Amino acid sequence: MARKTKTKSKVKSGKRGTASKTKTKAASRKAATSRSSSSKQSFKQRPIDHYYWPTPNGWKTAIMLEECGLPYNLIPVDISKGDQFKPEFLKISPNNRMPAIVDPDGPGGRPISIFESGAILQYLGRKTGKFYPADERARVEVDQWLMWQMGGLGPMAGQAHHFRLYAPEQLPYAIDRYTNECHRLYGVMNTRLSDRPYLAGSYSIADIACVGWASRHERQGQDWAEFPHLRRWFEAVTARPAVKKGMSLRVDAASNVDMRDPAVAKVLFGQRAR
Predict the structure, then answer these.
(1) Euclidean distance between CA atoms 229 and 72, whole angstroms
(2) Does 11 have pLDDT greater than 70?
(3) I need a labelling partner for 121 at 20 to 30 A (CA). Which of 29, 48, 172, 254 fits?
(4) What are phi and psi of 48, to 5 degrees?
């Protein structure tokens, strides 16, 4: 399954005229336009390989690629079948986790592979100059909330999902532990958003990192009614066309995965060092 954006190059030609001077000007305009189109074409971004599975982590990079208007090839990584442990994928993502990308037009014009969703967001933000400010003070604001998601909201929400939905037995202590921690983290976000539209003030990769996890609040045992500022933020972010596209990026095989299948659980939750 691949997705590429296409660019069209139009070359304008001058109108025909009977005078030699008119023909010369028309030819000059046509040649200049042609050279300009050729120059732009030579700097066209080649599609980025996007290793993906539809999860809150996978949505981060999908949203960012869509927000930045970057072309990409969608490469499904079926985590239920162990694609993440294949040698060719481990060369790109040694932590055997998606998402990951390979940018053929990396620094210095050479390919670069990147794993870890937060690192990918930062890289694409620097590459495009979008949603990741160059000003150091503003960038620190974004980085704080990006790291907050990477070290807090994502892992805690993931554990809440696991013990509430996927654990073979219900463990009240584990369920309460991670449900309560998600509640605490949602409270932190709600307070932060009480006096600003987005986590770092302006829309940024910090919001992109958090929105997928927040979309699963019901699975985490959280009630939007308790977090009105967070809910307002969520509705604003998910109304963005690129966010809608990124979060609706589907892989047909993913809809057929049975998370309660012992074979699937073994692949997802039973791995040890190799």
Answers:
(1) 34
(2) no
(3) 254
(4) -85, 135
